[in-house]
Amino acid sequence: MPISIRKATEDDTVALSRICLLTADAGKSAETLHEFGALPGLVFAVPYVTLPTTWAFVLQDDDTGAAVGYVVGSTDTRAFEAYAQEHWWPRWAAEYPPERMTRPADVKYAHLLQNMFTASEACMGFAPAHLHINILDAYQDKGWGRRLIERAVEHLKGEGIEGVWLGMDPRNMSARTFYEKLGFREIEGADKNNMGLKFENA
């Protein structure tokens, strides 16, 4: 199975959104939870090939040309938050108001678009950069998650950044185990579901 990692572009937004939906329920598909399947990707994937300070890499199945995973993030989380607060979240909040929603998962995201969370000071003290990573189930447990993280670290080092952090679903214990194997640790003073990696430990 030939697989490659390449830089993502805005042409990948549909694929990234799809991957996000298919992994949005603690690593499993959230298709049945959503009537508006674009919502998870609008928060956790698509902005990272669209907004300033962002970067993204795609895991591609070279037999089909399909994107089957990604790692995305921002080099400057506070700048990302400020830009998104003015230019990104209001646009989608207007398109997906909570009163249109009937499914709880959609309602949750609709409210989130109206009042997006921001990174804690503890996370920001650890590193300015954050990331999200998702891989379709059929391509997991084959070493590609590690390769994606390694590519992200390489990119961030090139930007002069010395660490990165992420947030994880507390239900996804396999993801926690994966991150711990790569050297991610809980961040002092942050929510226990935030984990960080200093590149000297990578």
TrEMBL record:
The keyword Acyltransferase applies. Residues 3-200 form the N-acetyltransferase domain. It comes from the Eukaryota. Keywords: Acyltransferase, Transferase. GO terms for molecular function: acyltransferase activity, transferring groups other than amino-acyl groups. The keyword Transferase applies. It holds the Pfam family Acetyltransf_1. PANTHER family: O-GLCNACASE, PROTEIN O-GLCNACASE. This is Acyl-CoA N-acyltransferase. It comes from Schizophyllum amplum.
